[in-house]
UniProtKB/TrEMBL annotation:
<dbReference type="InterPro" id="IPR036291">
    <property type="entry name" value="NAD(P)-bd_dom_sf"/>
</dbReference>
<feature type="domain" description="Ketoreductase">
    <location>
        <begin position="15"/>
        <end position="173"/>
    </location>
</feature>
<dbReference type="InterPro" id="IPR002347">
    <property type="entry name" value="SDR_fam"/>
</dbReference>
<protein>
    <submittedName>
        <fullName>Oxidoreductase</fullName>
    </submittedName>
</protein>
<dbReference type="Pfam" id="PF00106">
    <property type="entry name" value="adh_short"/>
</dbReference>
<dbReference type="InterPro" id="IPR057326">
    <property type="entry name" value="KR_dom"/>
</dbReference>
<keyword id="KW-0560">Oxidoreductase</keyword>
Amino acid sequence: MTGWSASDIPDQRGRTAVVTGANSGIGLVAARELARRGARVILACRSEARGKEAEARIRREIPGAEVEFAPLDLADLVSVRQFAEAYEQPTLDLLVNNAGVMALPYGRTTDGFETQFGVNHLGHFALTGLLLPKLLDTPGARVVALSSAMHALANVDMGDLNSERRYRRWIAYARSKTANLLFVHELARRLAATGSEVIAAAAHPGYAATNLQAAGPRISGNRTAERVMEFGNRIIAQPAESGALPTLYAATASGVRPDDFIGPSVLMLRGAPARSWRARWTLDDVASERLWVASEQLTGVVAEGLKS
């Protein structure tokens, strides 16, 4: 794993990948590098304009790249179902649940969920469940969830999943990132119980310069906080190209194990991909099963073919 870079990505020809939030940041880099290695990549993005712009950008940089935009709004379960229904390929080799929001003012998704929990966890939970039959039918398939080192700030609150009692934007973000890790933990457990060889793993980018950090302050109109985030991106953060490496490693490297959590090797902030520390509560079998059942109830999506 030492010194692993995008040039170490195995040949992806003949493989199909879905990358959510592929129009910018980590998602765009991951989609581009998978396409560079020969994968057919579906750019699952909320904005048609930005999604098609990303598609054109990758095609310009990589002549002959097999990439295409497909609409997906993770804040709307109807859109999630429409995306899954429109997916016509007989198999799916790789699902990268990358899209996310960070530290937004309180809001709700179309379905009434707190925005960060709804987009970062529930939307991807539903998408994975709906696409699971394709993954189960594909030898060597993987699911990669994007979490964050910030998950360590808070465990999920099973009694207040939508932060209705009290909303603190960074705590809500941390809970959604813990939910990502609990989801991978439970998915890996259920896949193993079924005898499936599909690998479910998680990754985090460390501190990478993307549009994510400044979005919350910008929406809130907090120009000072926005400038602080932009300064951090310029001076401290590693570039998105480096931040995407843990995702690409989790998605393609041969040494990845079920329920692995891959992140930068230097203080979880930067450097080559390595297995990352995670809070002990993200490995709690009882909590992961409770969250799974609650997520099924909230989304109405039950993963077919998995044992409880």
